[in-house]
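Technical annex B. To support the medicinal chemistry partners, we prepared a structural model of the target in complex with biotin, based solely on the information shown next.
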Amino acid sequence: MINIKKVKENVVSAIIGQNIYWYPKLESTNDLAMDLARKGAPEGTIIGADYQVKGKGRLNRTWFSPAGENLLLSVILRPSRSIEISQKIVLAVSGIIICSLNDYIEEHEKGKVSFEVKWPNDILFDGKKIAGILTQSILTGKKIEALVVGIGININTPLKKFPDELKNKATSLSQILGGVNVDIDDILIHLINNLEKKYIKLERTNYSGVVDEWKKNCRSIGADIVIESPKTGKIKAVFEDVAEDGFLIYRINTNDKRKLVSGSLDYL
Ligand code: BTN
């Protein structure tokens, strides 16, 4: 169980984590956060759980996480902007997660670990996923009333516990650091502090530079990929770039560039 008292004592924030609700078990932190957001919960409210019965991934997938081993939380944001900004927020949050993992690693003198992002918001180590983000929104027309940013970070799950279909695709911080037990509270503290700093800066700077920052953590521009989306089906393409609005640009033929707004990609 997360030590909320310790977390609150160690965060420096005026927005993120002013209210933290943590549960031993929930259906999904995103579901409860959406509920509370609809009822007017203030910006920065965090809903967390040690275990989710129906943890949700992107594209209707499920999110695997055994009880008490990992970080599962949703943050309610209320940027007074239109929905287009959510793509940039998601890209920014993937950088914030990487920063927070690196802060922990540095603090514990665990050497240099190199994480990378996979569009739009997976965080990978050595090609394996350590974290994912699922955003949901409440809108009035195109205006955001609330954006729920759901974050799942694999912290202490050992490789042997992942189901067979994830064993080659997923990893955890503990696994990367050689099997040590990682203090989940400490990661949460870094995450809240970084979210606070970066979110305030993004709002102040009108989200400029988000895509360039994201690209610094991306090593697959130019790679051969397979994209899958309701619109395209499954097709082979080249990962050309990420556009200023945060969407992926892919190329099928030399002169045929297109934009992927929603979907997934795999590397070939
Ligand atoms: C993905 O990569 O598919 C997104 C995974 C997001 C998982 C987190 S865990 C906390 C929050 N609550 C959920 O039900 N999902 C997100």
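Notes passed to the chemistry partners:
The chain has six helices and twelve strands.
The longest helix spans residues 85-107.
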